[in-house]
Amino acid sequence: MEAFAFSRPAAVADAARSVAAADSKFVAGGQSLLGAMKLGLAAPSALVDLGGIAELRGITVAGGTVTIGAMTTHAAVAASKEVAAAIPALAALAGNIGDRQVRNRGTIGGSLANNDPAACYPAAVLGLGATIHTDKRTIAADDFFKGLYETALADGELITKVSFPVPKKAAWQKFKQPASRFSIVGVFVSQGAGGVRVAVTGAGAGVMRAKDIEAALTASWTPAAAAGVKVSSAGLNSDLHGSAEYRAALIPVLAGRAVAAAG
C-alpha cells in the first residue's frame, strides 16, 4: 500500500474542501476501497474519512418517504423498526448483505458510490425508484448507475442521503455466492405510485431494470407472470459461479419468488 494523507472532517463542507486535491478519495466504511489499496489497484494521495460527520447518519420516515443518511450502516438499516414497518424488503435486504462485520462497517452511501455490479443496495435503489442526494444536487435512480463501477457522481461529489418512496408492495430475492455473499443474481420488485419496477443485480455489468418483467407484472401482478418471461442471456456475466444462460434463467425465477413474497 502506498503512503497517503489522511483527514477526518466533522462537516460536509469541510469534507468537500478536503477532497478537492487530485487523487483524493472519500472513505465511508472502507470495505472496497481499502482492499483495493492493499492490492495496489488504487493509490489515492489522500483519504477523507466521512466517519466523523454526524449529519450523514440517521434514518427518518415521513410523508411516505424513508430517508437514510449516506453513512448509515447496513446493520442500522436492518435493525430499524421504522424501515421494517415502512419498507420491509429494504430492511431484509440490508440484513443479508455480507456478514456481520461487513454490515457493521459498510454504509449505504459507500455501496452506491462504489456501484459493485453484484452489490445489493443498487437493486433496492433502482427497484424502488429512489433519489440520491449529494452535496451538489439530487439524482434519480434511473440516472445514477452508469455501468461497471461507474455512477453519475462527479469528482469530489459526495452522497449525503438517499430517499425511498414507500411502495404499496415490494420484495427482494437473492441467489448468493456462498463465500462472498454477493449476488450471483438478485432481484428487487416493487409496485407503487410510479408503477411496477424490477431491478436486477449480479447478472450484468451493473444493476439494471428488467423491463419485460415489469411489463408482464403491470398486466398481471402474479408470480406466474414474472416467471413466464424469457430473459435473453446477451450481455450477461459468465464466470465460474454461473454462465450467462444460467443467470438469464435465474432472473424470472427470482422475480416470481419476489412477487410471491410481496403478496
UniProtKB/TrEMBL annotation:
Domain of life of the native organism: Bacteria
InterPro entries for the chain: CO_DH_flav_C, CO_DH_flav_C_dom_sf, Diverse_Substr_Oxidored, FAD-bd_PCMH, FAD-bd_PCMH-like_sf, FAD-bd_PCMH_sub1, FAD-bd_PCMH_sub2, Mopterin_DH_FAD-bd
Annotated ranges, domain FAD-binding PCMH-type: 1-169
A GO term, aspect molecular function: FAD binding
Pfam families in UniProt: FAD_binding_5
Keywords attached to this entry: FAD, Flavoprotein, Oxidoreductase
PANTHER family (UniProt xref): XANTHINE DEHYDROGENASE SUBUNIT C-RELATED
The keyword Oxidoreductase belongs to this UniProt entry's keyword annotation: yes
Organism: Rivibacter subsaxonicus
Name of this chain's protein: Carbon-monoxide dehydrogenase medium subunit
